[in-house]
Amino acid sequence: MTKDQSTPNLHSKIVILYGGFTCRSGGAYNHSVALSAALNSLGHSSKIFTLDALPFALKFIPHIVFSTSYLLYPPASFVLKGLAVSILFRIYFFFSGTSFDAIVFEDLYIAWQSKLPFIIIVHALWSDNLESYPLNVRHAAKLKNYEARLLSFYSQKCFTVSNEYSCFLSNEHFPALAVNALPVIPLGLDIKYISSFSNPQSQLCHPFSMVFTGLFCERKNLFFLLDIYRYLRSVDSRFELTLIGDGPLLPSLTSYALQHSLPLTLPGRLSGSQLYSRIAAHAIFLTASTKESFSFSLLEAKILGLSTYAHSSLEVPSEFIDFPVSSWDVSDWANAVLLSICSTTPKRVDFDRYSSKQMALSTLAAANVI
To answer: What is the value of pTM for the model shown?
Structure first.
C-alpha cells in the first residue's frame, strides 16, 4: 500500500511510471533511466515501472484496449489505453504492497490524482504525433479536446521538456482551446560521463562520416535521410552513414540501401559506452525527424562534439542544431552539409542546464519533494 502522506522524507522513495515496454522505448524511457540514476545519486530511492513489471496476463491489456477502441472510435482510444495502464499500475501497487512517497508520470494519459506528491512530464501529445494513425479532421480535433481537458485538470502538475515545445503547444497546437503554456523542466544527461567518450581526433580524420541514432519509425523520416545520403554520395563518395537503432522500418531501410547501392552501417540498438563511443567516431549528426520536443540524440551529439543538422521547425532547444535547414528539399539539406562540412563554429550550449542532476533537482522541487 502507498503511504498516505503529503510531505515525504528527505530521502524519498520515488516511482517513475512509463506506460510502455522497454523493448519499444524512446525518449520518455531514456528520461526515466537518466532521472532514476540522478535521483539515486542524490540519496533518494527511485525505481522505474513499465508494462514489463505486470503479470503476463495483464501486460498486454492496454494494447488490446487501444486496438479495439481504435476500431470503434479512434479519438478515445489513446485516452482509454492510458486509463488502462493507470488502472493496472494501481492494481499492481495495491496487491504487491509497493510503498513510495512520490510519483513521476512519464505520460499525461497514465496519470491519476494521487494524495502523494506527483508530477507529470509531457514529452509529447498523441494529437501532435499521428504519423502512424491517420485520423480525419473531426477525430483529430476531438482528440485535441480530450488532451486539452486533461491538461486543464492536471494544470498544476504538468511540465514539458523545452520552452520551444511549450510555446508550440499553447500558441500553435491549441490556439483555440485556451491551453496555458506549460512550465518547463529540461531533460538532462550525465554530461561528464558522456563527454569522456569524445573523440575529436577521429572527427578530424573522418570529416565525411555521418551518424543518426533513434527509433526506426515514420516520424524519424529515415527514407528522406537516405535520399540526402544518396545525393551527398553522388557529389563525393567519401560520405558514409551509420544508423544506430532499430525499429519497424529496419527491413525496408536495408532494402532501400541495397537497391541504391548505398554503403550503410547498421550496428543495431546500442546504449551506454557502446553508443557514445560509436557516435563520437563520427563528425556529423544528421536527423531528418519531423517532430521532436527535446531530442536526447541531438544533445548527445553536441556533448560529443559533432556538428548537428536538423530541420529548423523542430521544437527543440535551438542551440542543439548547429545547422538548421528550413525546407524539405533534398538538395537544400545536402548543400547545407557540403557548405559547412569544415565549419569550426558550432553553437555553444550551456551543458549545466541540461545535466541529469539539474533535471532531478528541478523534478523534486516541482513535485514538492524538497
So the answer is: 0.90
